Amino acid sequence: MGVIALLIAVWLSRGLAARDARMAQRLLGPGESSRLAARVEELIASRASVVEAIDAERRRIERDLHDGVQQQLVALALLLARAKRSAGLVPHEVPPTDGSSSSGLVSILDQAHENALQALTELRDVAWRVYPAILDDRGLDAALSALAARSAVPVRIDYQLPHRLPRTVEPVAYFAVSEAVTNAAKHSASDIIGVKIRSLEGRAVITVTDNGVGGADPSGAGLSGLARRVAAVEGNMRVTSPQAGRP
Q1: Which SS3 state, helix, strand or coil, does residue 174 take?
Q2: The pTM is what?
Q3: Which of 36, 103, 117, 237 is deepest in the core (most CB within 10 A)?
């Protein structure tokens, strides 16, 4: 049985501001310049990583739209053009007089209707992946429950936070879990995924586990990009995924 676990620590309250103020006071002692310089370097690197992650996400969305919704809409346009010809609505074209145009038109319209529904479904999926509206409306707990309902592999949610995360942190927490669940469902061959969110010493700790084959690569594009997003909100991430799983 393999296991993949992600631990993401993010600030639960505005206590971070007070903590930073105390840290700044401590920085006024010996070695102030070197510590400040190191912190600035960290922030610059984190900022660049976030920009890279955003660009990568934009490219992924473009591919999804091009390969999915756009192709469906092109097919829909072609079907509607065929329907117009079948119905005799195209100038200088005479529709068949043997009755086949009527049955053919119904078949074409059925296909067009199916294509329209498929395009709508794919567009909704893309919009959900970009940013689920339920996250703003009802919070992380509800958004994760909806994520679990859409997963191909059963997902158990254990949510124990006393209140909502800050607005800047909540999307990062959601997409971290979403990416972890998606990876587990696609690559781990697991039959159950667990998500636990709890509060520990003023921080939110999120653990995602599965009973799959293991072998996840923390340096891969998906997980490394996820780690950068978490770091951008003063969080940290740890991945444990033995190649052969656990006995």
Answers
A1: helix
A2: 0.61
A3: 237
